[in-house]
Amino acid sequence: MKKIIAVSNQKGGVGKTTTAINLSTAIAAMGRKVLVIDLDPQGNATTGLGVEYDAREKSIYEVLSQQVDIKESFQQTKIENLFLIPSKVDLSGIEPELSNVHDRAFVMKKIFDDSNSLDQFDFIFIDCPPALSLLTVMAMTAATSVIVPLQCEFFALEGLSQLIKTIDRVRQNLNPVLNIDGIVLTMFDKRNKLSSQVAHDVRTHLKEQVYETIIPRNVRMSEAPSFGLPALMYDQNASGSQAYIALANEIMKQNKTQEAA
Ligand SMILES: Nc1ncnc2c1ncn2[C@@H]1O[C@H](COP(=O)(O)OP(=O)(O)OP(=O)(O)O)[C@@H](O)[C@H]1O
Ligand SMILES: [Mg+2]
């Protein structure tokens, strides 16, 4: 069964896009077929995967507004087994356009359910925007689980309870199968005491919900997008890249356990 993972946190700049891009690259390198859906009007995942602005005409906006069939929107990236539905700034117009649609939270789920073209993928990652907006709720309604990147900084836990409440509400009202697969600590700086303290506190509070792998702060991770490459392709040996490979292994293992259950 394919997994549809929404990478979500309403806080900005916590590593959602970096996590979506590099996890999907690592899993594609393991021989699984992976789709990234860029659901952020900022289009950072699209840029980070090297798709130029001119090549974005069949974007997630056209899919959600029913102008393009989803099966026409998959773009092969430079990475084998890794496909993308790109995003561009038009996507910010979808929320007002759908404001009168009664079951707008289900728009994405319906498109997924009505198309067998998604069956070719083993994993689908949805890179959510930094807001608990309709786009995020649509992603959570269509997803099978959520991964939450959490930056190792002082305000990390602030907002997390609101995010968890939103996920609970989506589970109760819109998508009974939705679960949090895990919380991933990002941009960890081992020289910074606060970073270690935050990581420790998050583990104390959220226990086994937190992935063992911690993503370190690593300059190669922030350089990679300007080359239109996942960090994993830009510099595979960088500490951040290696951490995303470890996280991918952890998620594959978790997935096996979930499938067996
Ligand atoms: N492990 C890391 N080490 C160093 N820089 C990182 C790391 N992870 C992400 N960054 C950088 O931090 C910034 C924010 O990361 P990213 O874009 O992944 O966050 P985001 O949560 O998707 O942001 P937004 O909320 O704007 O969508 C980017 O410039 C990115 O390159
Ligand atoms: Mg982002």
Describe the structure.
The chain is α/β, with parallel strands linked by helices. Helices cover 39% and strands 17% of the residues. It contains 11 helices and 8 strands. An 8-stranded mixed sheet has the order 3-4-2-5-1-6-7-8, with helices on both faces. The chain binds adenosine-5'-triphosphate and magnesium ion.
The helix-and-strand class reads: alpha/beta
Task: Name the CATH homologous superfamily.
Answer: P-loop containing nucleotide triphosphate hydrolases
Helical percentage: 25-40%
Low-confidence stretches: none
> Termini distance?
13 Å
Strand content: 15-25%
Q: CATH top level?
A: Alpha Beta
The SSE order reads: EHEHHEEHHEHEHEHEHHH
CA-based shape: globular
Number of helices: 11
What is bound: which ligands? adenosine-5'-triphosphate, magnesium ion
Number of strands: 8
Number of domains: 1
The largest pleated sheet is described as: 8 strands, mixed
CATH architecture designation: 3-Layer(aba) Sandwich
Please state the average pLDDT score: 95
Q: Strand order of the main beta sheet, please?
A: 3-4-2-5-1-6-7-8
Overall radius of gyration: 17 Å
In short:
This protein has 261 residues and is of the alpha/beta class. It has eleven helices and eight strands.
Topology readout:
Elements: E1 3-7, H1 16-29, E2 34-38, H2 44-48, H3 60-64, E3 75-76, E4 82-85, H4 94-97, H5 107-113, E5 123-127, H6 134-142, E6 145-151, H7 160-173, E7 179-188, H8 193-206, E8 210-216, H9 219-223, H10 231-234, H11 239-260
Parallel strand pairs: 1-5, 1-6, 2-4, 2-5, 6-7, 7-8
Antiparallel strand pairs: 3-4
Helix pairs in contact: 1-11, 5-6
The chain binds adenosine-5'-triphosphate (ATP) and magnesium ion (MG).
